[in-house]
Amino acid sequence: MNSPLRIGIAGLGTVGAGVVKLLAEHGRLLALRGGRPLKLVAVSARRKAKKRDIDLSHVRWENDPMALATAPDIDVVVELIGGSSGVARRLVQKALASGKHVVTANKALLAMHGTEIAAAAEKKGRILAFEAAVAGGIPIIKALREGLVGNRVGRLYGILNGTCNYILTTMRETGRDFDVVLAEAQAAGYAEADPSFDVDGVDAAHKLAVLTGAAFGARVNFAGIHVEGIRHVSSMDIEFAEELGYRIKLLGLARETRHGIEQRVHPCMVPLGAPIAHIEGVFNAVVVEGDFVGTTMFQGRGAGQGPTASAVVADLVDVARGRHMPAFVVPADRLADKKVSPMDRHVGAYYMRLMVQDRPGVISAVSGALAKERISLESMLQRGRSQSGEVPVVLTTHETEEAAMRRALARIAKLGAVAEEPCLIRIEAF
Length: 430
Ligand code: HSE
Known about the structure:
This protein has helices at residues 14-25, 27-34, 66-70, 86-97, 107-124, 140-147, 162-174, 178-187, 196-199, 202-216, 235-244, 305-321, 362-372, 402-413, and strands at residues 5-10, 38-44, 60-61, 76-79, 101-104, 128-129, 153-159, 225-227, 246-257, 260-271, 283-290, 294-301, 347-357, 377-382, 390-397, 400-401, 423-427. It is of the alpha/beta class. Helix 1 crosses helix 12 (305-321), helix 4 packs parallel to helix 5 and helix 7 (162-174) packs across helix 8 (178-187). L-homoserine is lined by residues 161-163, 198, 203, 302-303.
């Protein structure tokens, strides 16, 4: 039998405990598939006494996770601490500098420092693997690195945050508003006590930054992403979307345009005919459009103990086999410093919902503001009459430049008959 791959795990939360369980439960299978045993040698976590339902009796406990980075009996450090700075970053840097391979699920760290960490791994000839950082159990990094490596990617998009997808799905199914559904999701443990990373789009943007690097051969550029969350999406918009033949999804999208690379995370109107419109609840999905392969879609669970542990262990089997590729598919020093295409240059169709006083001349003033920017209307809906005299008016446009849409929107928001901040949602053509 070949010598075992000796593993040190830092962080024993849900995912860490899942990796320990998977390694124990599938030990024989993994030894066959990895060509040698995958042996857990040491672990480190904040609280040793915490009840975890895993057997650590033959595993060394390190109070300081940094000890894993230099331990002579460890070949690969699995970083499951999280966070873009602090211990997680220091541990990964130190482990690579000490000649260890690194497997991490830390999307925030990769989004902020991915290029630099990939360069550090390559300099040492070590593997940096992060399948679990993006879309949980979906093997999308492997797909980009291996299965789709022959393609130029024109566009990539996905549902990258299960919490948001769950909230939007539940809002649609129950007709309830965002705040109510979020509170219920928190009570049920589906959403974090501080939900901002999820509902404000930051978590999805971290994942998009990593995917863009791998798909487009670009330096990881989190700061170049336009990010909006789902707090402003109302159940009324969700209902109108269905009526118009769309479903609202929080998507992360990246594509090459003539102005540079466009990366954005925001709620989108997705045509009901598009398969991604039907990815519901906590599920994630990623669509990759390659020039030779065409459109491919990957779906599965984006979080949770089993799916995330499955992704971490896939990376460990690669390390055991010595399967080695640059972290972002091309060598870190060849990743392109691509220009960021500004959102003002984004070209697309729009959904706009206004709450207006139901009186003569309002629609004409609204369409006048759009006409002034040469924005062409595709459809218009008006429904009912409320006690306050305000009614929703919904407009969809043909393709236009975002800058023009923003100028028109600013004029419309100032009209006396417009009662509240207009809601603008981009329509995606798939
Ligand atoms: N909080 C994330 C989600 C999972 O809701 O999808 C971990 O990235």
